[in-house]
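Protein modeling request. Please complete all fields; requests missing the sequence field cannot be processed.
Requester role: graduate student
Desired output: 3D structure, token encoding
Chains: 1
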Amino acid sequence: MSDTKLPAQDDSLIRQLWLSNFLTPVLSVALELGLFEALEQDPLPMEELCQRLKLDHDATEALTATLGGAGLLEIHDRCFTLTPVSRSYLLRDSPFYWGNMIRLFQEVRPCHDSLMQTLKQRGPAAMGDGVTLTTGWEESSLSVERATTITSAMHSHSYASALAMAQRLNLPQNCQVLDVGGGSGCFSIALAQKNPSVCFTIADLPSVCHVAQRYIEAFKMDERISTHPLDMFHSPWPSNYDIIFTANIFHDWDASQRQFLLQRARQALKPGGEIMIYEMLIDEDQAGPLIAGLFSVNMLYVTKGKQFRASELATMLTDAGFSHPRTETVYAGYSLTRAKA
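Delivered output (341 residues):
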């Protein structure tokens, strides 16, 4: 071993991956401590930030070094300040606040053993209420309280993406859109703002529709967006729509359930109607991107599904009787796949 040579690449990537399991807890702790609100108005020196957080110097320093290294804090004239990313997504009053999603997924903390079990046995882990996400959806058993928690988290996750997609999507005049599994309605709301002649129906579980109505009213979209209580696996779907839209829905379900949903969607469309599927996609060579790979691990861990490649979605659609599938990249790793009924 005396002639062992140092590798050309250092081990910093492996070291970062080793320590990355602390990143989300650091973020959730910072949110609970109000660190970002403490810096909302004015930059603060270390001593004053310690006082605001009620932590000693070493603990605060560990947080600021991590959050600064992650691009969420900056230092100017020995004072800490927010970055554009943290100001947009980590302040409670921001319409794009991600804290609800960060909080929800603190209910599920994967470790080596639980992830190994999930990957080998392909069964989702239970959430903090003791049941899996998909159980509540499949059995239509979500209480309004639980639906509020999950829907607000999904809204955190999706609202910026919805606005970005709406900027690029011009819908046909006076068409009718069914937003299946529409949650808070953020995609319908964003699309309605961009397409003033189009009307939308959010189809979701009754408890979720109750929550969605609050968002619809808050955005003053009552005349353009309605809700339709729907157990999508067991109830008849409303029909005669020009477009069926889904966002982050197909990645929740196994192959047979996905085909069932596609068949229902095709039956609910007018002849020549269009399905639109908004998902984060894995590269065709299956070697990235990192965010889509991690998202797929997440979906394997908490649902029955996964993230897809564009070619997989195309095959799913043609197998279900749709034609001319095409995919375009939209925003932050997300793509929109469209096909004709």
